[in-house]
């Protein structure tokens, strides 16, 4: 069993990596534009606006138009990064995401800011725990849930270079910079962050570092846990899931509803290819009032909760 | 390569006669497609036919052989259910063979009930759900402004479709940005699927609404080819705001028993009705 990846000092807001990367891309390629719904501040695009005011298209508080305008800009040869709180981008404008972006197969990059329960006490209207389930049936919409600043930068750079629709979650929750095994992200390729053979923890986004912490807790109890980074929701790394099932027990961890997101995707894959005991961690429904950290702990999205779920899955092995 | 209207622009009476002939061909073709498929939206096909013929045979610059030329004028069929007319005008303009129209809505046909840009050339965006065309058109117009291109962007909406709020989000943005190379054409036939627009969720005074959103408004007879060519052809440099053309039309225009009759929104003709309509469409 390999050692757990060490984290660097400090914690990071992935929005900083998003905006810094977008500015670097915009400097190199004048086709890159940003489209926002009065979300310049919350998307950390103040610097972009200052440098290229005409290339930051602020449509105001009008998300349906925002996504349609993004599709139109792509038609006119631009590479639009449509950036808005994920709850409004994927909820309010879901039909535009479906018809104008995915079904039309336009070169639009959708950036869901502050996803999951990133808005904490503001509550379920501002949470975006449904986005992954809503978007997963859109088969040609590549979907990435980055875990840290490096992966966020990689996702944004990938999206700019890729010709076609992409959705990227951009988290505000402070996360450590993880030590990744890959030099660069590749579509549909999961990343084994830590090897193990008693149980496999499949996680993405800001849950990945908590999964790694859980593996440390389990190691202290003599349990060898594999941790797999499932940043790619679409395409899904089916082989990595089947391989993880060789441990005989699976836990999925996501900052999303347990209905239809990563857990659902993994469960479908296991049922079709290699059924093993499985536990799913996430949100069972609308979250109650609380800070982000409170809500993570409340729903077991913590080192203690994940390790406990892992032991439960192991106990269910035949 | 330079773009031009296709075929080469005619002038005066010849030009109007050509557009009239193309509009008639659209109606005959669309009704045949609906009859053969047993599905479709012929009432709206007919109210839009003269507008489409004017755009494709008198106004727009495009090259059907290079349908994604960056300098082309764009047309978006926001009332995407009227594919009988839309596919017909695209075929007549040379984007794909007219023989393909026979596959309308057949299994695995590229001619879906609603248009798909990935199936056929000449389609800018996939429509069908209402209220999607204008936001995309606004984005195209903004891209043209950013790139200092002189292409024009046209979008045809139904009138009932304007009950969708997304149109007004987009209208607000278009007016705010003074997108003078954007033209919205409203097919004002006053009927929607189930009833009259004014009996359902009234739109009047529709011209005032568009003016309030920052548009220059023209209200015209949407079946008068000369007026359509004149109003749609006016140089956009002459205005500092987007243009809204409210084209007053008649649903089912051209066939006596279909005109202004809501049952022909998605009515399908029997053999006798089809024969009668073809006699009138000459």
Describe the structure.
The complex is a heterodimer of chains A (318) and B (282). By secondary structure, chain A is of the alpha/beta class. In chain A, 38% of the residues lie in helices and 19% in strands. Chain A folds into two domains: 14-170, Rossmann fold (3-Layer(aba) Sandwich); 191-315, Rossmann fold (3-Layer(aba) Sandwich). In chain A, helix 3 (63-75) runs parallel beside helix 5 (94-103). Chain A starts with 13 loop residues before the first helix and ends with a helix. Residues 1-8 of chain A have low confidence and may be disordered. Chain B is of the alpha/beta class and 282 residues long. Helices cover 39% and strands 10% of the residues of chain B. Chain B contains nine helices and five strands; from the N terminus they run H-H-E-H-H-E-H-E-H-H-E-H-E-H. In chain B, strands 1-2-3-5-4 form a five-stranded parallel sheet, with helices on both faces. In chain B, helix 5 (165-176) links the parallel strand 2 and strand 3. Chain B is globular and about 50 Å long. The model of chain B has no long low-confidence stretch (mean pLDDT 96). The interface between A and B is medium-sized, with 30 and 33 residues.
């Amino acid at each position: 069993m390999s050692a757990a990846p060490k984290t660097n000092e400090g914690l990071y807001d992935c929005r900083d990596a998003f905006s810094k990367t977008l500015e670097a891309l915009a400097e190199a390629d004048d086709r890159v534009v940003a489209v926002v719904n009065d979300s310049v501040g919350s998307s950390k695009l103040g610097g972009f606006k200052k440098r290229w005011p005409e290339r930051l298209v602020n449509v105001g508080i009008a998300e349906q138009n925002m996504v349609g305008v993004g599709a139109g800009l792509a038609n006119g040869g631009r590479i639009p990064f449509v950036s808005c709180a994920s709850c409004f981008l994927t909820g309010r404008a879901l039909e535009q995401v479906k018809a104008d972006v995915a079904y039309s197969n336009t070169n639009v990059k959708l950036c869901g800011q502050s996803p999951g329960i990133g808005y904490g006490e503001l509550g379920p209207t501002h949470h975006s725990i449904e986005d992954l389930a809503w978007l997963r049936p859109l088969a040609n919409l590549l979907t990435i849930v980055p875990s840290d600043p490096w992966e966020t930068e990689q996702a944004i750079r990938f999206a700019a270079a890729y010709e076609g629709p992409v959705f990227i979650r951009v988290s505000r929750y402070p996360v450590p910079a993880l030590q990744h095994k890959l030099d660069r992200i590749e579509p549909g390729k999961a990343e084994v962050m830590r090897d193990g053979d008693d149980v496999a923890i499949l996680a993405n986004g800001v849950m990945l570092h908590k999964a790694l912490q859980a593996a440390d807790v389990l190691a202290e109890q003599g349990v060898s846990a594999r941790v797999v980074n499932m940043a790619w929701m679409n395409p899904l790394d089916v082989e990595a899931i089947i391989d993880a099932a060789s441990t005989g027990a699976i836990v999925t961890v996501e900052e999303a509803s347990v209905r239809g997101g990563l857990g659902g995707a993994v469960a479908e894959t296991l049922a079709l290819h290699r059924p093993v005991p499985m536990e799913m961690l996430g949100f069972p429904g609308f979250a109650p009032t609380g800070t982000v950290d409170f809500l993570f702990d409340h729903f077991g999205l913590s080192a203690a909760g994940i390790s406990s779920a892992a032991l439960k899955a192991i106990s269910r092995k035949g | 390569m330079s773009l031009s209207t296709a075929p080469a622009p005619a002038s005066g009476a010849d030009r109007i006669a050509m557009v009239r002939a193309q509009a008639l061909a659209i109606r005959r073709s669309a009704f045949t497609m609906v009859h053969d498929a047993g599905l479709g939206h012929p009432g709206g096909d007919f109210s839009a036919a003269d507008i489409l013929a004017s755009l494709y045979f008198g106004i727009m610059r495009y090259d059907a052989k290079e349908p994604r030329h960056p300098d082309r004028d764009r047309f978006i069929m926001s009332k995407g259910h009227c594919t009988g007319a839309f596919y017909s005008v695209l075929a007549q303009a040379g984007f794909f063979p007219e023989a393909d129209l026979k596959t309308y809505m057949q299994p695995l046909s590229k001619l879906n009930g609603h248009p798909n840009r990935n199936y056929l050339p000449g389609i800018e965006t996939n429509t069908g759900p209402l209220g999607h065309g204008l936001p995309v058109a606004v984005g195209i117009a903004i891209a043209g402004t950013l790139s200092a291109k002189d292409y024009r962007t046209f979008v045809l909406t139904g009138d009932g479709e304007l009950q969708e709020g997304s149109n007004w989000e987009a209208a607000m943005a278009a007016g705010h940005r003074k997108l003078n190379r954007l033209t919205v054409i409203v097919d004002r036939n006053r009927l929607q699927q189930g009833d009259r627009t004014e009996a359902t969720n009234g739109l009047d005074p529709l011209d005032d609404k568009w003016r309030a959103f920052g548009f220059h408004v023209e209200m015209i007879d949407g079946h008068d080819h000369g007026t359509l060519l004149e109003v749609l052809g006016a140089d956009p440099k002459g205005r500092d705001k987007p243009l809204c053309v409210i084209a007053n039309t008649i649903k089912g225009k051209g066939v006596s028993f279909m005109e202004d009759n809501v049952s022909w929104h998605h009515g399908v003709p029997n053999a006798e009705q089809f024969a009668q309509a073809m006699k009138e469409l000459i």
